[in-house]
Write a structure and sequence with these properties.
2 domains; about 450 residues; alpha+beta; Cytochrome Bc1 Complex, Chain A, domain 1
């Protein structure tokens, strides 16, 4: 299981000033949000003790805004920000960031595009000014576009030769048949047809103050940070606010195999759409996930270690996007063990549907979920991710302050019920990349649970 945003120290972050906590608990970081007249939202989070801060500008645009003909366009547009501005060349951008003791990270994700870096407190104003130049005055020239597209082609070639990435591509296409999340990777032909004009259209439509949220997380003087933000960003064009966008995953009991004759390993993605973090059963689902396949001591991990003779590759995760949350387990095994590995997972799911797990397993799983929850408590960028996550899911204070309590309240029967309700293998989509001739006879023994 990857550390998930929902497992950040959510219960430890509340609005208002830091105040004393009961013994054994960390102090609550202060958080304040305000909005400029142009629509830019700003959240200041006071956390940690080192005189540093993460500055992160998050734009409400990403893969979700890509046209059907243009997967990869969001990333191309984001990457163009580092290729130069009207006032700075690409080299000057990198040099100035280095002089501030940081490196600018730019990433287009499923629903947002983020420009961020970590700097010493005294350098916050200069870094704010630098990233403002990137998003407000990008050069968007032909030479830069050529460099960005060539780099994307190289990265794509590597991705499409990776069985794990191919399995993800195949599986996501099943549960997101009609939306951009169903094609997480571009193709060479697609990248080849995209032009600089497409990038400029994305920029003009989506890069503006009313679609942006600026976060500053760390140790800084609140009034000074606000003053800098207002001076630098108040005259940024407001632009059009984002339109409501909902992309829902579809539960499909379907098997797709991508043949790789002679492959000595196979990668299987198996899972289905599930409930969002705001659902009252979500804590039970997270505990069930941890107990089932969430880490190296989970049931499925122990089974796979026995089958493979070595620690397992792959893990389960809950991918959390508003109205498009899914649960998936990734099985990376030797080709000869494909059926056994898939059978082990299905067997554990079927068993947990019928019989509640022992209390000791539930206690361990709850502790692991809460440990992951607390691991990010002192992380400046973790706090930014948390607030961004809660904003996306419209989750209020009751969710974040009561998170640990809800996890601790999960019972043996709650785990069984969560598996029965939300992790039924007869509703799961399966994508396998490997030697089909060797894999198919193994799958025949698992039908009808394998379609």
């Amino acid at each position: 299981m990857k550390l998930r945003i929902a497992c950040i120290a959510a219960a430890l972050l509340t609005a208002g000033a830091t105040r004393a906590q009961p013994r054994g608990q960390a102090p609550v970081p202060a958080q304040r949000t305000f909005t400029l007249k142009n629509g830019l939202r700003v959240t200041l989070i006071h956390t940690g003790t080192a005189r540093k801060a993460v500055v992160s500008l998050v734009l409400e645009t990403g893969e979700i805004d890509e046209p059907a003909f243009g997967p990869g366009l969001a990333s191309l547009t984001a990457d163009m920000l580092l290729q130069g501005t009207v006032a700075r060349s690409a080299q000057q951008i990198a040099t100035e960031a280095a002089s501030l003791g940081t490196k600018i990270a730019v990433r287009a994700g499923p629903v947002t595009t983020t420009i961020s870096g970590e700097v010493e407190t005294t350098r916050i104003p200069r870094f704010l000014s630098l990233i403002a130049d990137l998003v407000r005055h990008p050069l968007l020239d032909t030479a830069g576009f050529g460099r960005v597209r060539r780099h994307a082609m190289t990265a794509l070639d590597s991705t499409l030769h990776n069985p794990a990435d191919l399995a993800r591509q195949q599986w996501r296409a099943i549960i997101f048949p009609d939306g951009p999340f169903g094609h997480p990777y571009a193709f060479a032909a697609t990248l080849g047809m995209l032009q600089l004009g497409h990038v400029r259209n994305v920029y003009d439509d989506n890069y503006s103050a009313s679609r942006a949220h600026l976060y500053v997380s760390g140790v800084f003087v609140d009034a000074a940070a606000e003053k800098s933000v207002r001076e630098i960003y108040s005259d940024w064009k407001a632009g059009a606010p984002p339109k409501p966008r909902v992309i829902r995953a579809v539960a499909v009991h379907e098997l797709v195999t991508l043949d790789q004759p002679g492959a000595d390993r196979s990668v299987t993605w198996i899972g289905l759409p599930t409930i969002d973090p705001a659902d009252h059963d979500f804590a039970s689902l997270e505990v069930a996930d941890m107990l089932l396949a969430g880490d190296d001591s989970s049931r499925v991990a122990i089974d796979l270690a026995s089958i493979e003779g070595v620690p397992p590759h792959g893990s389960s995760t809950i991918w959390q996007r508003h109205s498009a949350t899914y649960w998936v387990d990734v099985l990376d095994v030797r080709t000869a063990n494909t059926g056994a590995a898939l059978g082990a997972l299905i067997g554990q799911l079927s068993a947990l549907k019928k019989v509640a797990p022992p209390e000791a397993e539930v206690v361990r799983a709850r502790a692991r979920v809460i440990a992951a929850f607390e691991a990010r408590n002192n992380s400046r960028d973790g706090m930014v991710a948390l607030v961004e996550f809660m904003d996306e899911h419209s989750i209020g204070d009751g969710w974040r302050t009561g998170y640990a309590k809800r996890v601790m309240a999960v019972t043996r029967e709650d785990v069984r019920a969560a598996v029965a309700a939300y992790l039924d293998p007869s509703h799961m989509a399966i994508a396998i990349v490997g030697d089909r001739a060797l894999i198919e006879p193994q799958l025949a023994k698992l039908r009808p649970l394998v379609p």
